Amino acid sequence: MTDTDSTRSGVRPGPLDAITDVAGLRVGHAELASPGALTGTTVVLTEPGGAIAAVDVRGGGPGTRETDALDPRNLVQRVEAVVLTGGSAFGLDAASGAVNWLEEAGRGVPVGPGPTQVVPVVPAAALFDLGRGGAWRARPDAALGRAAIEAAAFAEPGTPVAQGNVGAGTGAVAGGVKGGIGTASLVLPSGITVAALAAVNAAGAAVDPATGVLYGRLYGGGRVDYPDPARHEAAQRALAAAREETARRTAGSVRQPLNTTLAVVATDAPLTRAQAQKLAGTAHDGLSRAIRPAHLLTDGDTVFTLATGTHPLPAHGTPDAAGLPLGTVNDILAAGADVLTRAVTKALYAAESVDGPGGVFPSYRELYGG
After folding, report:
1. Residue 202: helix, strand or coil by DSSP?
2. DSSP per residue over 136-177, as a string?
3. Span 305-361, pLDDT tens digits
4. Which of helix, strand or coil describes residue 228?
5. Predicted confidence (pLDDT) per residue in 193-222, tens digit
6. Nearest to 85 by CA among 131, 133, 30
């Protein structure tokens, strides 16, 4: 996706078109390497000292950890990392590995005089991919969470982010089409960067059944290239056959659909906790553009926000109580929705087909080409 995908004047993708365009953020992925496994964990790691954080949970079946700590009324102001993981509620154990690593590094909420007397608060959310690789008990654990945060820590600042069948997106599926990890960024005229990383695993569809176009392209702005009608008909037949084969292979096992799309939306703007929570909420609008329907009872759709505050305040405009011009705040909120739509769309473009004992999940590129 290119600059033409942005419909608002002066808004452009960042240099990497990734969440790592927000200075100081790093991303690490780890996948479970065991027979029948198709799952993994992704960590977004901040600089030491953390970032302002918030969350908005809209799905009816969430699996989360430490989300109450992000309520603006509560004590914790900043977090060092966010964990996105497969494995449903079992996979939340991956956050323990990240917590242990941060404790050893002396990073967390100080609770005593010693440098390691800290309590790392690590918000986490899980998506449902149990049995996608064929083995019901193949799920992320603390060791995998530690591997993911170590991968993030050893990544060079400002490096590209792997997308597709990696980390928490390894076993992700959206409406029968292979999902995965996607990331995107936008730089506003003020110079502020807003970016997103999404693990796309939805009960709803990412592909318009009438045209074969990704919803994120239809409603994300920019040029839309419609597939040839014959190619679309062939793709729909192939997708129907894949769903039937998946149902046959999983008969008596996993009930479908059980899903969840997870995201981290980040900015270098100096947001308050309340503003960060508003950004998490408006970002869900971007999810709703790219996945239809979203926020179902069998989804656990969750959006986290990280605000690093490293970009200086704009010099002009009427400030709000926190010092940011109101127009700038609105631009950030709008960009949060736009960039999440793009991240979801890029996840579908980057995903690769999977054909295994847990089912057949064709990629969008296999179905539609290019």
Report:
1. coil
2. TT----HHHHHHHHHHHHHSPTT-----BSSGGGTT-EETTE
3. 999 999 976 655 555 545 566 778 999 999 999 999 999 999 999 999 999 999 999
4. coil
5. 999 999 999 999 999 999 999 999 999 877
6. 30
